[in-house]
Design goal:
Blueprint: E1 8-14, H1 21-31, E2 37-43, H2 49-58, E3 63-68, H3 78-88, E4 93-96, H4 108-118, E5 122-126, H5 140-156, E6 171-174, H6 190-197, E7 203-207, H7 222-243, E8 268-273
Parallel strand pairs: 1-2, 1-4, 2-3, 5-7
Antiparallel strand pairs: 3-8, 4-6, 5-6
Length: 292
């Protein structure tokens, strides 16, 4: 359900990012000030990330929650964590970004402005609009893998072609794009799932400087590459089903099932507000305040 007092929901999956979450929270609160936002951390950590998060939130000026998923509910990893965050989000817009500081919070106001200015349903933070660069990719090998995966994606999925970076983990969308849609992601590429199954008509790209990981260990592995290929094949089948060239499997249909409660799912939901948080501060990011 959309909360009219919240213009923007951040959904951030975390797994063993204790060294990164405090500077991440600080950067978000600085880039998008005011009470019109909420931050949802969906945590799968095995270290002290949840405790660090809760302490950082209490010391901040931000409205935020930490949903800690149990071992039984972590299936699917990062992408299912994002979907779980979508279910909890209450804003008109939802922004997804990683917790490793590779995605700059300073780009979020530009993405939100692009959404209003161009009436885009999905705004993608793109690493490719300003040309090809190795920056942030931790080597030529990682860059080459990303470039090939992008070409495969554009070839296989027409719905991915309107954006230069369909594999981006940094994007903003209108809540209506995924509201009530049964997303079935695999691996890390949640944007692909949104582009194929979501309800959208227009996409805009916003360039940003892709940063190197601040701390911790990258979650990209050879296993994730194999999962990506399986997901691509599955989404290609879903695309054909939506065009009517194949029978539509039941699993591709929209569902409006009720959101499971954290307790029922074996999850723990920690609600924490910054100690200086003021809920009467007016929303700063609404349609009237964005430069067109």
């Amino acid at each position: 359900m959309v909360d009219e007092q919240i213009s923007l929901s951040f959904v951030i999956p975390t797994r063993n990012e204790a060294e990164n979450v405090r500077p991440l929270l600080t950067s978000i609160c600085s880039a998008v000030p005011g009470a019109s936002k909420e931050i949802i951390f969906v945590d799968d950590s095995d270290d002290d990330t949840p405790a660090v998060l809760q302490m950082a939130i209490r010391e901040s000026d931000c409205r935020a929650i930490v949903l800690r998923r149990s071992q039984l509910t972590r299936s699917g990893g990062l992408s299912t964590a994002v979907v779980r965050g979508f279910e909890l989000a209450r804003g008109k817009f939802v922004c997804t970004m990683d917790a490793d500081l590779q995605h700059p919070a300073s780009a979020v106001p530009l993405m939100l402005s692009a959404a209003y200015r161009s009436a885009a349903d999905v705004v993608v933070g793109s690493r490719y609009t300003n040309g090809l660069t190795l920056r942030g990719f931790n080597g030529a090998g990682r860059f080459a893998v990303s470039a090939v995966a992008r070409q495969l994606t554009h070839a296989a999925l027409p719905s991915a072609r309107p954006t230069t970076d369909p594999l981006s983990g940094f994007f903003l969308l209108r809540r209506s794009v995924v509201d009530g849609v049964r997303l079935q992601p695999m691996g890390y590429k949640i944007l692909l799932e949104v582009l194929v199954r979501g309800r959208w008509s227009k996409i805009a790209d916003v360039p940003y400087a892709f940063h190197s990981r601040n701390a911790g260990v990258s979650k990209s592995t050879l296993r994730e590459g194999r999962i990506f290929l399986r997901h691509l094949i599955k989404l290609r089948a879903a695309h054909r089903a939506r065009l009517g060239t194949d029978p539509v499997p039941q699993e591709f249909l929209t569902t409006h099932s009720a959101m499971p409660s954290p307790s029922a799912a074996g999850e723990e939901l920690f609600v924490a507000y910054g100690q200086h948080y003021n809920p009467v501060v007016p929303a700063l990011y609404d349609e009237a305040s964005i430069e067109r």
